[in-house]
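Re: the pair you flagged

First of the two:
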Amino acid sequence: MNTPEEPESGFWFMRRKNPGNGFGLMTEFDEFVKWEDHPLRYFFMTITLLSALTWLGFAGDNLQFHRSNGGLSFAGGTTFRQLWKNSWDNNGGVLLLFRLSAFVSCCAFATTQIVRPNLEAGGRVSDFMNFHDWSFYCLTAFFGYATLVSFWGVCFHDTGYDRYIGHGGECNTTGHWLVTLYSCAFTLALACDIVVWLELLFFPQCVSETFRKKLSTLLDPTSRLCYFEWNYLVGFMGNILLLLIESTLGQLSFPKCYLSTPIFVTSAFVMASYLLHETFMYKWPYEQMNFFRWQSILYVNGFFGLVFGTHFFLNWFLSMGQSEKKKQMPEEHIPLFQ
């Protein structure tokens, strides 16, 4: 879908050839200050980097707190049987077929719309530094692992005692990692989609950068037509649709304590971007992450906050309609890793 007016290459909107030109505040500031020679840039770089490390430390503390208090082991009372059965019976065949179909579809889409364009663009490490891509990799990994869990449950499930995650004795580590991937994929997919939906409304990308800041572009519906092509709809609507179907059929728990996982992935992306730029001199994957610019502290922390809020929204949204458990077994609250 690369037209003469469209500067993007590949599939995702957020990959720019000239990312710095898309933000008026940054451009106007640079007209008055030669930022590359300004000593304050090191100050803002330090603040931005420390804020990202603070989010990473928060995720680690959150993980350790819930692990010490049995929160991770409890994880909403998920048992092994609840990992693979569908919502209306104990057969699990429908859920297995859905997860397998979703995994095959995600693999095909990631190969043709993400990996192949990146390889054709040169196959450099920087070509794979796109956070929308990372969120789709998490989605693919979840459905791949969920397919294996469903296959094992349907074909070789244990009919004996159905342990909770972290129940006394051998821990249900399968359930722990499935819920981990589920919460990570759902949170990151929705957070990335929200960014694109806001972009569609307030900063449409279907025209050249010359016209993006104009009011006529904002009011013109045709400036958003590229968002309705099939690959964009699948990438920014299909991922959420698949996860919503999964939440209906599988009804996996979505605990608050698993907020650590999407923050870990986001922090890993931020740190990797910084190291690639400072060590190997790659360009910033997003100009908003350029730590030497003062605006980066707003963009980086704003996205971390979006991930944080998205996870807690999903925790509330996906728990609606579930009955409160009257009594929990005390053995359940044994830490997952002893």
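Second of the two:
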Amino acid sequence: MKTILLVFLSIMMSDLAGISRTPSSAGKEKKYPSFYKEGVVVDGVSREWENTLFMFNSASKVAYAIVNDSVALYICIRVANEPEQMKIVRNGMDLIFNSQGKKKAEADLHYPVGGGRMNEHLGPGNQNMGIQTDRKRIHMMMLLQMQDMELTGFREGVNGFQHYKSGRNGITAAVTWDSTNTMVYEARIPFMVFRGDITLSAPLSFGIMIKGTPKPKEGETDKMNEGGQEGMQGHGGGMRPGSNLGHEQGMLGSNDTNQFEDDVIWRMMMIAKKE
């Protein structure tokens, strides 16, 4: 009986000691999620990304995940909301990094760069084609406008423009649409392209910025809509970035008031180590 009592008291003391113990590094990693993952292929297909890796931002309707292996960061972004997809194509998207854990860009991968043009691709015979029957063509037109990326704030020799598939300095990106018409965006950014050693960052700030469409000046909305109809009938030129907004959103089946707002998402993370 005395032996049982001593064992019980020993367990109790052990539990109390555990409660008062200083949080371990594992606790910090839980606060700033880190995920080590090998075998990510940047092809715009997210089958290798487990759903548990993603976080969802309700304001922008964007799901995103960031992981790393021993040499690079990998980002996957899923955008199911079609007006948000249009914002990305038209106005561009930035992947932002800060090694000091601040919500301020040190390094920026700007892809797509924005300025997507669409109506010029639709000929006179297509004015009655709805978005439900022509989505694949719309997506192909979008991809034609998403060829270049711009890099700023990285180490010397990395910055500037490059084709998104070139793989220069190990940086690459890909965009596709899956069977549910969700836009899937993937990017790879090696550790070596950063100015400092981000593997020592505690934590690393990672941001996504999707620019809103510039608000039309008073009285311009009707003119834009008229221009959109004219473009569809083949009587006008191509769509200028920032114009024909009403028509494009009609094609996407939405009139989202969030179109004019910048969407900014920040996440703190640790660089994960291979176990």
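The chain is about 25% helix and 25% strand.

-B.
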